[in-house]
# Entry
Amino acid sequence: MTSLRIFAIGGLMSFRALFGFMSPWIYIPTLVVTPLFQILLFVFIGRSAGVESDTFYVVGNAIQYSSVPCLFAMTFTIAGERFNQTLGPVLVSPAGRLPLFLGRSLPVIVNGAFVGALSFTLGSLVLGVTVPASAVAPLALVIVLASASCTGLGLVLAGIGLRVREQAVMLNIVFGLLLIFTGANVPIEQLPEWMEAISRLLPFTHAIEAGREVVAGSGLGDVSGLLLRELAIGVVYAVLGYRFLRFMERQGRIHATLERA
# Structure
């Protein structure tokens, strides 16, 4: 019961602390307006180049932009404790590390899925992209799995954030790599072979492909293989991230670097 409270209440409190020092209106330009303009940018580039359809870019960029809340929030809910000099008291507590770390990921997944769904909805409305009613529920599942998978990667970056000083720079670089490698704007098969091989190991790649097929009329059964691969990638990153966080915690104790900014 204690572990459940740490998982649910502790995770929620930590997530709220991310926005506790800012006006909630910062959410709108960062996670509502910006993804819409990213979608519009690549749609009009695609139109000018005469390549893929509007739907191709709306689905790809809406799902990919959920990486911003997933990566940044997951990293800062943990590494931010170090910056605010509260990491020590958190880690000396007897709380189990599994609910402590993974509990902070649940609000991040929910927020990432919300941003992805809202971006897709706004992009579709502005650009006149139509989606069959039968595709709404499967697409929602795809977006949730994509957010969960990326949050697993965020755990890995959170571990790195316990040592490096400029987490924001690192996260922006990763965001850019995901924009290029996951097929959000360029079909995977058109990438160089080495890039395609890397893309298959990243979050979003399989989810974006599944999302496009679902919008085109495919059912969940048709994309189940893609969704299972996306889920497996997320689980692998989450396990690696948890292990890495524990490793960095031990190293921080040994070298007294837990709260060194």
In short: The chain has twelve helices and no strands. The chain has one domain: 2-18+25-255.
